[in-house]
Write the structure tokens for this entry.
Amino acid sequence: MKKFFNDPLVKFLFYGFSLYFLWLGLYEWWLHPDGTIDRIVINNTLFFSNRILEWMGYVAGVKGERLLYINGTSGIFIGDSCNGISLFALFSIFIISFPGKALAKLFFIPIGVLIIHLLNVLRIVALAIIQTYSYHWTEFNHTYTFTIIIYCCIFSLWMIWINKFSGINTKRKDIEAR
């Protein structure tokens, strides 16, 4: 039984699922009902998305607490499920659960979360532009195109962690050298 729990895959799955359920409980029962974290992330996303659109020459603005618009459109509503917080958690849990030095994790997780957030801001900007020129393509791109792009980015970040920072490839090279 002890050998079973020393298996790296079992450890990864145990820690990963444990942290995921801990996060799920923490978010669903405390953070989400409070709403503070969601508002902070959504406000930040709206701010930077609006600034990028204005920088690109669009007459854009923010209505209320969740709506980004380009003049002449109904706007893009950012719901709690689209603010990226669950993706930040998913990414972080994977890195925490996977082998690697704690100091490297302390640097890699914030950088990864920042990259995911930046991608989400660019996704909102792109959706606002798509809505301006091809309204009927907005929902398709929201549901499929950008979901695929964001998850591919997260997967790429995981692969960078595994191949460059986890130390697993170093262990393999040591074994192959013997």
Notes: The radius of gyration is 20 Å. The chain has a mean pLDDT of 91. DSSP finds seven helices and three strands in the chain. Residues 116 and 145 are 15 Å apart (CA to CA).
